[in-house]
């Protein structure tokens, strides 16, 4: 699943949603940033962005099939009813990429993320054809990170070795839990033993591996969550993503909610997880992501640093910068419709320019997920507008103690990390007619 601000890949929000921000002592004194950019002297914002250089470009590829639909999942994923016809879909992906080439002409691709759904339902030969086709069409950097999402229920050693031989150099494994009872409660196709076998093989074959784990699972206690994490840490994966199980609309769990731990227990689990991971040498670099030094996911970092990405495949989102605008695109979501639309030479369902009023929020929605924040100069570099265009919002966030007053950085404070939603929402603006922008593609 992907949406503006909730990018593809391993990124999912684990913030304390809906928790109100209370007034703090920090509100009493404006920080250095607020003092440096007085809210009353905001220069007029140009009507169009201007880019000196375009951001790094990543490629996302969506594969919308899974062995079985999980009861909690709202991703654009569909249960397979027969042969996935991988060759037909790969041909469509490459045709889709060709359609997109004029939008990315001459630009190098820094990373590839093949996500889903469950791309590991495809045979290794299909992933090989896909990556060969991508390389033939776009200049992929020689050291590009190439990630593939896999489900332990699709694990076969020879298949994993085939993905590696095809050029996948990072595997993201949807473990969710090592606990057999939890896996059954989550309706997963794999059990604890399969999870362990897949984890072993992934580490032996790829080295660079992420485990997706979820917490606040049905009836989960802090002790059980600790034990689950210990089981994961025993493998020493370079990267761990931790997502709080959320009840998403249009899922079975939303209609029939399982007995989930309350917010206090979930917060205690978060604290326990954080403590164990820090002790084991992992850096908590993003809301849901933990990595050993140097093993941060480069593809996802590019989203959070408001880099560009082209998304191909059913329902994939793109964000592409041009010298005078930023464009977002959405491809047709339903797989059969997508295939038909690609055949007709029209894969896009939506295409629109990001408005001046939205871009500050979109940048902060991503950048503030990073615990270290981003250099303040990145705002102008990646949005094409001066930082002063969000001076009022920055001053308000700093005054509330949610944003670090260091003027050289855009960095959430510990309070801002805890109430990330509230911090991000401060950058949300009413749209003005002058701020809205059309791009010819319709909306
Ligand atoms: C595309 S799936 C990963 C690969 C593969 N499809 C699998 O599930 O094994 C992305 C990840 O999102 C997380 N996820 C999906 N639905 C979620 C939900 N409702 N709440 C929290 N995390 C969720 C899971 O950890 C899942 O591994
Ligand atoms: S296998 Fe992954 S993408 Fe597919 S339904 Fe389950 S969580 Fe969603």
Tell me what the structure shows.
- With 443 residues, the protein is an alpha/beta fold.
- The protein has a domain at 57-302: Alpha-Beta Barrel (TIM Barrel).
- Strands 9-10-8-7-6-5-4-1-11 form a nine-stranded mixed β-sheet, sandwiched between helices. The chain has a three-stranded antiparallel β-sheet with strand order 12-13-14, with no helix packed on it.
- The chain has 16 helices and 16 strands.
- Helix 3 packs parallel to helix 4 (157-166).
- Iron/sulfur cluster (SF4) is lined by residues 66, 69-70, 73, 75, 77, 116-118, 151, 174.
CATH class of the domain at 57-302: Alpha Beta
Q: What characteristic shape results from the CA principal axes? A: globular
Percentage of residues in helical conformation: 25-40%
Main sheet properties: 9 strands, mixed
- The Cα radius of gyration reads 22 Å
Question: In angstroms, what separates the terminal alpha carbons?
Answer: 20 Å
Lateral arrangement of strands in the main beta sheet: 9-10-8-7-6-5-4-1-11
Overall mean pLDDT score?
A: 89
Please count the helical segments.
Answer: 16
Would you tell me which CATH topology of the domain at 57-302 applies? TIM Barrel
Give start-end ranges of low-pLDDT stretches: 1-8, 10-40, 434-443
Label the structural class: alpha/beta
* CATH level-two architecture of the domain at 57-302: Alpha-Beta Barrel
Classified in CATH, the superfamily of the domain at 57-302 is Aldolase class I
Strand content: 15-25%
Which small-molecule ligands are present, each listed once?
S-adenosylmethionine, iron/sulfur cluster
